[in-house]
Structures are given as C-alpha cells and as structure tokens.
C-alpha cells in the first residue's frame, strides 16, 4: 500500500508545510492517532489541512508526470500531495 498526504489550506499552505514541518513525522502522528486528517498551524497562525489516503502501488513515474505535466506550479504552493514510502 502506498500512503499519500494531501496538504491544503490558505495561500502557500503546501509550501509552508514543506518548510516548517517534517512530512514523515506528520504522517507518523496520523498513524499513531489512528486518524486520516489533522489541522496544523504554521508559524504565522495559518491553518494547514493534512489528509491521509491509501492506494495500491503508486508508480513514482506517474507521480512525477502529474506534478510536472498536469498540476499548475503556483497552485502546488497551496495544495499538493506527498507519497510516503
């Protein structure tokens, strides 16, 4: 099973998440609390929403394709996703 974190919120939420939080630690907190959703607060007091999804066998090439060829680069600063190995 592949685990995916979807991160969204106000402007630049995904970018702030990458800069201020440890992705694997947030994932582990979700697992430890048997949760699929958490709200985090960044250093500016903005709320970042993180959702956990499970999929079977996500091909890393497909993820690269989606991120590089489908998603808008500016929108990825607000909403993005991260595959947990």
Description:
By secondary structure, this protein is an alpha+beta fold. It has one domain (2-84). 34% of the residues lie in helices and 32% in strands. The protein has three helices and four strands, in the order βααββαβ. The chain has a four-stranded antiparallel β-sheet. A hairpin with a 5-residue loop joins strand 2 and strand 3 (47-55).
In brief:
With 85 residues, the protein is α+β, with helices and mostly antiparallel strands. The chain has 3 helices and 4 strands; from the N terminus they run E-H-H-E-E-H-E. Strands 2-3-1-4 form a 4-stranded antiparallel beta sheet.
Notable traits:
four-stranded antiparallel β-sheet, alpha+beta, 85 residues, 3 helices, 4 strands
Largest sheet: 4 strands, antiparallel
Radius of gyration: 13 Å
Helix content: 25-40%
What structural category characterises the helix and strand content? alpha+beta
How many domains? The number is: 1
Map the helices and strands.
Layout: E1 2-9, H1 13-20, H2 23-32, E2 37-41, E3 47-55, H3 60-70, E4 80-84
Antiparallel strand pairs: 1-3, 1-4, 2-3
